[in-house]
């Protein structure tokens, strides 16, 4: 390949790259990142975290939420439920779908005992402190930004460090804290400390497009010279 054709190839590659510049010249959303601010609050009640939602069954008096709650309220009064099972039927070890029951302002732990073929369902009262201790996690086992929020009152974390924003319920030095995201902000991460304006980006893209057209045009001229 002669010199003219080499120049034509180089100019063509450069021209195509410049024409495709929106793909790499400050593309949309690439140079931004979302940050979350977490705050910690000391509480003396069980928060409505996802863990508490799935592990604690709440049955109020008014209105009665379900047929399941009707039986639970009776058991909370001290009336166990007995069922005669078919001889061929076993009881799944994970019989209860929750760990605790809350009704009439108290907490209970569900039990299931099998005596022969008689299955007895009952509720055992437990203290609120027992439930709080079980549902909370140790601060030492929490993510770093949760530990920082408890010790400092708040902390900031980027979305790259999160699977998804969520609320934490942690225990630390005999107290319980809820740590939750209170605000988020979309901040620029490219071009040093700030992002260029939209008009500056458009000017750069227009200049690259003009340069790309010029390079492709010159590549055609050098191709003709190389023939």
Keywords:
6 helices, 227 residues, 35% helix, 2 domains, alpha+beta, five-stranded mixed β-sheet
Descriptive notes:
This protein is an alpha+beta fold. It folds into 2 domains: 3-30 and 191-226; 34-188, no CATH class. The protein has 6 helices and 10 strands, in the order αβαβαββββαβαβββα. The protein has helices at residues 3-19, 50-55, 67-76, 128-135, 144-152, 198-226, and strands at 32-43, 56-58, 81-84, 100-103, 106-115, 118-126, 137-138, 154-158, 168-172, 175-188. The termini are close together. It holds the Pfam family DUF8127.
**Strand order in space, largest sheet:** 7-9-10-1-8
Compressed to H and E, one letter per element, the order equals HEHEHEEEEHEHEEEH
Write down the overall geometry: elongated
Average predicted local confidence, pLDDT: 81
Number of domains: 2
Taking Cα atoms only, what radius of gyration do you get, to the nearest Å? 33 Å
Q: What is the helix tally?
A: 6
Q: Determine the fraction of residues in helical runs and give it as a percent range.
A: 25-40%
Derived structural class: alpha+beta
Strand content: 25-35%
Give a quick account of the main beta sheet: strands, pairing sense, barrel closure: 5 strands, mixed
Number of strands: 10
Q: Return residue spans where pLDDT drops below 50 for at least 5 consecutive residues.
A: none
Give the termini distance in whole angstroms. Answer: 10 Å
Give a topology summary.
Blueprint: H1 3-19, E1 32-43, H2 50-55, E2 56-58, H3 67-76, E3 81-84, E4 100-103, E5 106-115, E6 118-126, H4 128-135, E7 137-138, H5 144-152, E8 154-158, E9 168-172, E10 175-188, H6 198-226
Parallel strand pairs: 2-4, 7-9
Antiparallel strand pairs: 1-8, 1-10, 3-6, 4-5, 5-6, 9-10
Helix pairs in contact: 1-6
